[in-house]
Design brief:
This protein is of the alpha/beta class. It is built from 15 helices and 15 strands. The strands form three sheets. The protein has a seven-stranded mixed beta sheet with strand order 4-10-9-8-7-5-6, sandwiched between helices. The chain is globular, with a radius of gyration of 22 Å. The model has no long low-confidence stretch (mean pLDDT 97). Bound molecules: pyridoxal-5'-phosphate (PLP). This is Aminotransferase.
Amino acid sequence: MTTVDLGAKANRHLWGHFARHGPGITPPIITRGQGVTIWDDTGKSYIDGLSGLFVVQVGHGRQELAEAAAKQAEQLAFFPLWSYATPTAIELAERIAHYAPGDLNRVFFTTGGGEAVESAWKLAKNYFKLVGKPGKHKVVSRAVAYHGTPQGALAITGLPVFKEPFEPLTPGGFRVPNTNFYRAPAPYQDDEKAFGQYCADRIAEAIEFEGPDTVAAVFLEPVQNAGGCFPPPPGYFERVREICDTYDVLLVSDEVICAFGRIGSMFACDDFGYVPDIITCAKGLTSGYSPIGAMIASDRLFEPFDDGKTVFGHGYTFGGHPVSAAVALANLDIFEREGLNDHVKRNAPALRATLEKLYDLPIVGDIRGAGFFYGIELVKDKATRETFNDEECERLLRGFLTPAVFEAGLYCRADDRGDPVVQLAPPLISGQKEFDAIYEILRGVLDQAGRLL
Ligand SMILES: Cc1ncc(COP(=O)(O)O)c(C=O)c1O
């Protein structure tokens, strides 16, 4: 099969996700990966600066994960969790519960992150109906946050442009401000803690506005991805936890990106010192060697379903697939054996310091993130923090930056779902050598981008 054949077939038959199609557009075809490097069908190599899509934590080409999948497929390729169980799903549920904080001991498997978010909202509604608070069904989430594409998860997502084609969505989603300190309103620009309190208090306000008897859950990422890596200000989650307890609203920590070492712990709520009622996760659980997701619920939420007859009427054929569960267990073994979380904690300051060397470029407005998860916000005017208009974003991000970075040998993402950012999330095995290579490429391309303005 030649490259030309594959490209033509892709253009004729493959429907890309969130992808443009049309004359002159052929997707890059990625054929191989090893460590932090990927190769395309012409043999050209790239640094995988985004771990695929915040997924490939342990790096590409791990034979033992391929072998774990093959071994399980030979033994038992498939059996559902619909009133039955499999050894790998049981072992993985126990292992995840062991890593999860507090009394989050019950694991409901899905095939991905959006399904985990969808499951969490359904559980929140169902739980409150069972405990005599049937009006509690609404959810609060943050502006510009991405929580997935099922129509419930999409109603939690705070990106109007992604929702508009599919309206009306599941009713009941309400938005509060996110924690973008770079764009904090007056009088909070110089006081991160006060800004955090302000943002958290908007959640209490939304609950009050909607009526506490109608609100079931708050969905928050530990570090919000869309918009470009907004870490929580100090004290933010402490206040959010208080608010959720006051109003009996569930706190859902959407860790589809942040779990499994991205910030430096198995679950990022531990990095920021809060215990949610539910964690949603996916991506890094298998490092992408097979798909799986999970909703992890507290004992309190499971209790009404533990009476021998009440059923959570929800499920997915492939949820907790035995092969994916086997791969997840082997993946978590790698985390333990290689000390990947400690590696991230130890090397995160070096990643930050390396990226911060870009600050002298006029186009670089803000560099923010945590662990191995960073966003670089690009601005038209550094002094005023003026951002780009739609036409400039189109020309700069899509027209120049995305292809130029890739051409220069770095796979990462230029994202304009909020203000324009370059997003970075290298595999957790990366070190200074990879940070330097990423920096060199970004420096060259961002410098050029600045000149094109
Ligand atoms: C925070 C968050 N939640 C949910 C999702 C949806 O996950 P999936 O694409 O696996 O459905 C994503 C995907 O990137 C995400 O970042």
